[in-house]
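$ ./design --mode recover --in tokens.txt
reading tokens...
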């Protein structure tokens, strides 16, 4: 069984290398981080006010009753229902939470293999802090969008940066890339950290994304992040889904 927060689409991928591509999202519940430093304020079902990442509802166990325990077959059936009118292999985005918490489960691997075998492009959005083993050929066709958490996340460096895990992913999946969330206030320290991480790893694309979960919060950071991309030869990744739908879920 797999813990699912939500499955939605067809919509478009809002960020990263495959931005704008028609996609169905499978959002897994549970995470090994809380990222309180991202300061997205939310209210739990019991009425408690907290701060965390923008997908707090898939991370905070307070929302556990909203999560669905699902089999591989149930997830595939739901995706097929959503994409019933699509006559091509739509992108599948595996996100969270932190989906790699489920990497060792047969049900998770069966889900990935199903979509890869049907020629879907499968992107796994991950914080890339967990050690994983590539032991099946199809896994090399997965795209890993590695959003390694920086100091602005509020998480400890020894927990959020796993160079061995990053090297394994980069050497095993040639289509993978970095996608760092940066805010204007901590921009200099974030860039220094990005350079330390990437300098000891195989070369791949580096995207910078402005911190924010609403249009107004993105507007406070985006120009500074664009300037950093120009200065350091990184790629700016806007958050298209927020520009269009603001902080609305499931679109």
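writing sequence...
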């Amino acid at each position: 069984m797999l813990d699912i927060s939500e499955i939605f689409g067809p919509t478009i991928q809002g960020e990263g290398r495959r931005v704008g591509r028609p996609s169905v999202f499978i959002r897994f519940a549970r995470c090994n981080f809380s990222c309180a430093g991202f300061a997205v304020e939310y209210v739990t079902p019991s009425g408690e006010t907290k701060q965390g990442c923008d997908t707090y509802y898939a991370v905070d166990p307070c929302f556990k009753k909203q999560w669905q325990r699902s089999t591989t077959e149930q997830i595939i059936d739901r995706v097929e229902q959503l994409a019933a009118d699509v006559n091509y292999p739509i992108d599948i985005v595996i996100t969270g939470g932190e989906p790699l918490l489920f990497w060792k489960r047969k049900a998770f691997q069966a889900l990935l293999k199903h979509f890869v075998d049907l020629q879907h492009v499968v992107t796994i959005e991950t914080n890339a802090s967990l050690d994983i083993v590539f032991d099946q050929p199809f896994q090399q066709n997965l795209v890993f969008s590695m959003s390694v958490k920086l100091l602005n996340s509020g998480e400890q460096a020894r927990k959020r940066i796993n160079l061995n895990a990053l090297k394994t992913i980069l050497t095993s999946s040639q289509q993978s890339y970095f996608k760092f969330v940066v805010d204007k206030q901590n921009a200099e320290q974030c860039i220094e950290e990005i350079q330390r991480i990437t300098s000891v790893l195989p070369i791949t694309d580096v995207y910078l994304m402005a911190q924010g979960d609403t249009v107004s919060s993105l507007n406070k950071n985006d120009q500074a992040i664009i300037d950093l991309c120009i200065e350091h030869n990184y790629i700016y990744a806007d958050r298209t889904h927020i520009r269009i739908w603001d902080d609305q879920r499931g679109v």
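exit 0
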